[in-house]
Recover the amino acids of this structure.
């Protein structure tokens, strides 16, 4: 399994700060980096974060055929969620295995997919209003709220609520860190067979 990071339209140093923070405090992603299973899409122009075609080209350059490549999890931030979801759909249509997509502050981006999608938001309002465009069984919002860019740069240290439903569709909340939430999602999909919606 490989994780594809698709950042937004911001200084690339923020994504590097995130990866550095993961190295010291977030074991699953640091292990992925050590084993070469962490792919970071860093386009030459920030607006290309929106380009599903650019991300697909990047993946083909790194992985070859989508049909023989390992399963992917897409982790997108802000505007990068647009490109990440478009690329995930495209990768799947070309025969690739998409295990999940994780949208970090992808406000206004619909999450209607046939593979699992999850949201992380920098505050409750973003969490609530984003759910109107498709909610998942599991989501996270920061509490206390943080600034948009702080969420991406400091994911391992942000605390908040994991919102999840049980089999009877009753909603529950668990207080944890964003890193713990991401760790749970990665472990959930790590050994999964074929992705399903």
């Amino acid at each position: 399994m490989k994780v594809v990071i698709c950042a937004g339209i911001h200084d690339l140093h923020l994504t590097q700060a995130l990866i550095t923070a993961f190295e010291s405090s977030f074991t699953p992603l640091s292990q992925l980096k050590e084993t070469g299973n962490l792919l970071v899409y860093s386009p030459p122009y920030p607006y290309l974060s929106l380009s599903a075609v650019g991300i697909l080209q990047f993946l083909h350059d790194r992985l070859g055929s989508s049909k023989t490549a390992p399963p992917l999890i897409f982790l997108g931030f802000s505007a990068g969620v647009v490109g990440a979801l478009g690329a995930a759909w495209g990768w799947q249509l070309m025969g690739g295995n998409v295990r999940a997509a994780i949208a970090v502050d992808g406000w206004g981006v619909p999450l209607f997919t046939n593979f699992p999608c999850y949201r992380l938001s920098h505050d409750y309002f973003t969490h609530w209003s984003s759910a109107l465009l498709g909610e998942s069984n599991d989501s996270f919002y920061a509490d206390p709220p943080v600034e948009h860019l702080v969420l991406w740069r400091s994911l391992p240290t942000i605390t908040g609520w994991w919102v999840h439903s049980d089999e009877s569709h009753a909603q529950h909340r668990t207080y944890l860190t964003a890193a713990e939430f991401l760790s749970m999602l990665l472990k959930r999909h790590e050994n999964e067979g074929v992705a399903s919606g």
